[in-house]
Amino acid sequence: MDFSGWEKLSLVDYDDNLTTTLFMAGCNFRCPFCQNSDLVLHPEEAPKIPWEEILEYLKKRQGVLDAVCITGGEPTLMPDLLEKMCEIKALGYKIKLDSNGSNPELLKKAAREGLVDYFAMDIKNAKEKYPLTCGLKKMDLSKIEESVSFLLTSGIPYEFRTTIIEEFHDEEDMKKIGEWIKGAERYALQLYIDSERCIERGYHSIPKEKAERFLEIVKPYVKHAKLRSYE
Ligand code: SF4
């Protein structure tokens, strides 16, 4: 399976690392506020980037680029993801893997095989609001819970993150999320921006003052909590 999007140089996806970011088309969630509607809703129409072209790029930039970020869509749905990650690792790159947490088996396998340097997992909302926030009628929340528990204890660097939106999140949700991910290393509350690329239009970002209140609620539960893109 091919990747469908490629940001050849990113300075913001993985800390201070010079990163190239690969996007996979397709997702098992339908978060209404998703910014990648083209990749999620119409994966069959998405471009297909030859894997050899990506490998060639990575070979030429060994020692220049630091890392590869693999994102989506939901990259853990890619059938040959681990093989591709092996090839990236063999070239000496660090790998950051983004996930919605629905495939804990894959996360564990990637970790066991030493293929991941950093996980970033979405916490969409408090547990009882999860299906609503993911745009699903029902879902197996135990998979998400398993991924959270795994990241909390795997020893591999990670972050949890929530894109906060007026229509979906309130202070009570923040408290419940904090209790759920208690002890986590890093947690980011991310600014939502309505755009033409969203699955549904018309949702509202949380103003900075309110986001700062959210931050104060989650801070006691995690080691490093911050707002992202609110600067
Ligand atoms: S926000 Fe992430 S998990 Fe949700 S539909 Fe988009 S790609 Fe999938």
SSE order and pairing:
Elements: E1 5-10, E2 19-23, H1 37-41, H2 51-60, E3 67-71, H3 81-90, E4 94-99, H4 104-112, E5 118-122, H5 130-134, H6 141-153, E6 158-164, H7 171-180, E7 186-191, H8 208-218, E8 224-228
Helix pairs in contact: 4-6, 7-8
Bound molecules: iron/sulfur cluster (SF4).
CATH topology: TIM Barrel
In total, how many beta strands?
A: 8
Low-confidence stretches: none
CATH class: Alpha Beta
Mean pLDDT: 97
Note the beta-strand portion: 15-25%
Secondary structure class reads: alpha/beta
Query: What is the helix fraction of residues, given as a range?
Result: 25-40%
Please indicate the count of domains: 1
CATH architecture: Alpha-Beta Barrel
Secondary-structure element order, as H and E?
EEHHEHEHEHHEHEHE
Helical region count? 8
Bound molecules: iron/sulfur cluster
CATH homologous superfamily label: Aldolase class I
Rg (C-alpha, Å): 17 Å
